[in-house]
Amino acid sequence: MAFSTFVLFQLCNALAARNEDGPVLGRHQLHNRTLWICLAAVLALQVVAVQVHVAQGVFDTVSLSPAQWAICLATASTVLLTEHVWRAEQARFSHPADVKHENRPCQTPQLRRLARLKKVTGGDPAGWTRARLPFVRGNGWLR
Asked: pLDDT tens digits, residue range 67-106?
């Protein structure tokens, strides 16, 4: 049960980490087809590792009953519940007038990349082409 709960924790964590602000399970998550395919594949492999006899020998697992699966899922979903409560409380106590423009999180991936570039290069546009950043495809250098 611990192995299955851990995997389900990671699936719930992947859902909770999709957006820094806003609802934990919002409409934006339905549009990420790749994420849903990956989550479904991980869940399917987990069920195979736990329920299929051949895989049980490889992973040294035993079959779980539906009640045990429900307990694992309920325990793992506490990540989503906790994150939802945390975000609701932050939204309740934060006031837009108190937040400076520079401290607001970037809303798009392009703006986040630009903010990272400015931070790494000290705001110097000439250094942007030499900045080595992990999010760039290829060998990590901007072209």
From this structure: 999 999 999 999 888 888 888 887 777 755 554 445 555 5
Question: For 126, which DSSP code?
Answer: G
Q: 91: which residues sit within 8 A by CB, 6+ positions away?
A: 21
The CA distances from residue 58 to 3, 7, 49, 52, 53, in Å, are: 14, 17, 8, 10, 9
DSSP 40-75: HHHHHHHHHHHHSHHHHHHHT-----HHHHHHHHHH
Q: Which two tokens stand for residue 123?
A: 């705001």
Calculate Rg over the CA atoms of the chain. 21
Q: Are 46 and 1 in contact (CB under 8 A)?
A: no
* Cut 0.70: pTM above it: no
From CA 14, how far away is CA 23, in angstroms rounded? 14
Q: Which two tokens stand for residue 11?
A: 């699936």
CA–CA separation, 36 and 13 (whole Å): 13
Domain boundaries, the chain: 2-94, 100-134
Nearest to 114 by CA among 100, 128, 99, 127: 128
